[in-house]
Amino acid sequence: MFKQIETAELGKELRMVVVDTIKELMDENKRVIALDADLGSASGWTTLEGTNKERFFNMGIAEANMVGVAAGLSLTNYIPFIHTFGPFATRRVFDQMFISGGYAGNTINVYGSDPGFAAGPNGGTHTTWEDVALMRMVPNATICDAADEVQMEWIIRTFSHLQGVHYVRGNRKAVHKVYAPGSTFELGKGNLLQEGNDILLVAAGQLVYETLQLAKQLVQEGYSVAVIDMFTIKPLDKELLLAQSKDKKLIITIENHSINGGLGSAVAETLAENGYGIPLQRIGVNERFGQVGTPDFLQAEFGLTTDKIYEQVQPNLANLN
């Protein structure tokens, strides 16, 4: 059961949430292994080496090999967690993830850090707007986008008990809090954060906070707005989506990802396949590559701040009146 607290206060850095959670898992279970692609200092994963020298490996800048090693460890009954930046955890290693992970039936738990605008000054080469689209193509893979520190910890712990390929994306740095400590969730189930009758907002990841701010603004203007945190993008919670879409005048998806192949596409496919002819607007990145800048600058540049999102939805809101 989750409890929403939603505050402008920043939480604990997500990279340290991941590290601290994996360290606890390593202490609890000797089969848990951590692999990092030479980003230990940036990710904090080198701290795992301190008390677990025999179960932490810096695999160097050789991400494909890291996935292969993780698959091998899975074959010998270990539970591997791997980390690198989002594009290198998915795009660069896609064949290994598909064949050695999904096709071979191995367990690989993946933390792809700094997706989308969070890549910041690392630039376009380190930016991924397509990681969710790629991982959706791995049969039976699970894909999560963590909204905050509480959800990230829960996701990492949950992954450790499951078999298969599991991918979670999330900023390395601190993000706004959405959930109270101790909140629990259910993989494959979205969280209905707000009920409403006119507009349905469906978001994932750190943009859930911005989506809640957008909802407040729209409510002040007289709209009745529902909000879903669809933190598990695959499998998508079709039951909740369809139930909340019924009788809505407009559905808007919001994601720190390309509008192609991500949350918006998954929602569009579900609505179309079930004959829901409701206007849908997908807010995300459209036919662009990443670029250099601070995360705050890039979030605005790619139209993903609350104000920029509001500007984009205005034309469709006008059609509701």
TrEMBL record:
InterPro entries given in the database record: PDH/Transketolase, THDP-binding, Transketo_C/PFOR_II, Transketolase-like_Pyr-bd, Transketolase_C
Protein name according to UniProt: Transketolase
Signal peptide: none
Source organism per UniProt: Candidatus Enterococcus lowellii
Classification via Pfam families: Transket_pyr, Transketolase_C
Domain of life according to the entry: Bacteria
Domain Transketolase-like pyrimidine-binding positions: 12-178
